[in-house]
Each structure stands twice: as C-alpha cells, then as structure tokens.
Amino acid sequence: MSVKIECVLKDRCEIGEGPVWEEKSGTLLFVDISGMKIHRWSPTTNKKETVVTEKFVGFAIPRQTGGYLIGEGRRFGALDWESKSITTIAVIDEDKPNNRFNDGKVDPAGRLFAGTMGMEERPAVLELKQGSLFSLNKDHSVFKHFDQVDLSNGLDWSLDHKTFYYIDSLKYTVDAFNYDINTGCISNRRILYKMEEGEGIPDGMCVDADGRLWVACYSAGRLIHIDPQTGVRLQTIKLPVDKVTSCCFGGKDYTDLYVTSACKGMDEACLAKQPLSGCIFKITGLGAKGLPAQSFNG
Hints:
InterPro entries: 6-blade_b-propeller_TolB-like, Regucalcin, SGL, SMP-30. This protein is mostly beta strands. It has a single domain, classed as 6 Propeller (Neuraminidase), CATH 2.120.10. Helices cover 2% and strands 54% of the residues. It has one helix and 26 strands. The chain has one helix at residues 268-273, and strands spanning 4-9, 16-22, 27-32, 37-41, 48-52, 57-62, 68-72, 75-80, 85-91, 99-106, 112-118, 120-122, 125-126, 131-136, 142-149, 152-157, 163-168, 173-180, 185-194, 201-207, 213-218, 222-227, 232-238, 244-250, 256-261, 280-284. A four-stranded antiparallel β-sheet has the order 1-26-25-24, with no helix packed on it. Strands 2-3-4-5 form a four-stranded antiparallel β-sheet, with no helix packed on it. It has a four-stranded antiparallel β-sheet with strand order 6-7-8-9, with no helix packed on it. A hairpin with a 4-residue loop joins β22 (222-227) and β23.
C-alpha cells in the first residue's frame, strides 16, 4: 500500500494542535490554540462541534470520569462539553502572567504531563527560558519537574513505560528521560534525536504500536519517523503545508495518522501558495498503527 495524504477537514485553524482520537465516539478532538477553540470532529458524519475558551488553549484531554481536562492560559480546567462550562482545577506559573500552557498528554498511569511557554510575539518568536514542565496527579496536586524551558511541546512514553520522550522545540532536539511509572518521576535527560538541516522545528509527536516516534516538523512541512532505540530517522512524510504542528493515530484500527497544522502569521501570498494551511490531514498506507490514547484519571 502506498502512502496517501488527504485533507479531511478544510475548516482552517490559526494554530491547530493536540489531536486526540476518542475511540468510544469515533471522533477527533483537537484545539485551535490562538483561535481559543476546542473542536470535536466526526470523520463519519463530517460534523464538527466547538467549545470556545476565554484564553489560548494548549490541549484538551478526555477524563475517565467524563468530560475533558484542558490547559487554558495558565490553568488546568475541567470542561463539561454539554454545558460548555470550565471549572478551574489548578493555576500554575503565577509569577509569570505572560505564560501559557502548550502541549499536554496523559501517561500510562493516568497522570497528565503538560508544559508552559512565554507568549509569542509571532510564531516561534518568544521570550526564552520562561516555561516549565508540570504534571497533574489524580488528587489534583501539581508537580513541577523542571523550568528554563523555551517552548514546551511534544511528549509521549515508551511501550514499556520506562522512557519519557519530550520536546522543547527551540532546542531542536527530541529528548528522552528515564521514567518511573509508579511515582511519575523523570531523570537522566539525554538527546535522542537532533533535527537535521531542513527538518524545521520539532513540535507535537506520538508513539506508534511498535514504539517508534512520529514527530511533526513545524516550518518544514513534514513528519519524521524515528526509531528511539537507535536514534535513526526511518522515514520522512512531506505534507502540502509548512506549518505542521502535531499528529495522532486514530480510526477504526488506528492505522490513520491525523495531522494538525497552522496558518497563523501567514500573509495572503503565503496562504495562496499553501491554501490548506491550518487544516486537518489524514495519512494512510504508512504500514504503522497506533494505540488508544490515555485518559486522565482524576
């Protein structure tokens, strides 16, 4: 089977991000960060539902108890989709009012990991070293793992739960940590993969059922497929838009790779050349499949 790339949702996001496949409903959940919207889209019906937020929204994650956990501005919030109401769980970075959440993901034990960054002057241009990486536990306690982060981004875990993968975008690397699933502690940070010339800025990522990484390359219009055991790039998938932001596997058997993108900062001439910027893509025929997303336990 050959690789096929199709634009499946042409409603343009400013900064589409954080795709999560919801198996129960067969829908794709994703956010438009600066558009301040959370979307839920059904590939079967092509129907899209939207919740509008008051501030930039970095991620939305299903909760085991129902509803969603979101990162809006500097707060962890509980979203009730039906009433569209958001309840504050915790506020972070209180000494840095210009910070906001970016990417977030749930570990195999049900904890949420999410990072912050300074507000951007324009895409990928911001005050550096302002962000941190946090985790939110079942009891809603918050733990800061480290600070001095430029632009906290993609994150995921190895299949044996012993390694945590993390991207601080402006370091241009994909990093790995030792991971303790029992405590949620991380240690022994090292570089797993360093972006090569032309590969752009590492953004969101996901792990497939073989334990390999798929990394969205912002400004370079591609995804790269990495073997974390060797640090070798196995494959490059080029897309028709430069601002590729994140990806997740979904569909009935998790063989569809959904990809988000952005258009913020593009002028009319750029948009005329890349009219699908900000849209959602589906890639099939990769010969890879994913795993169900973890839901927040709390």
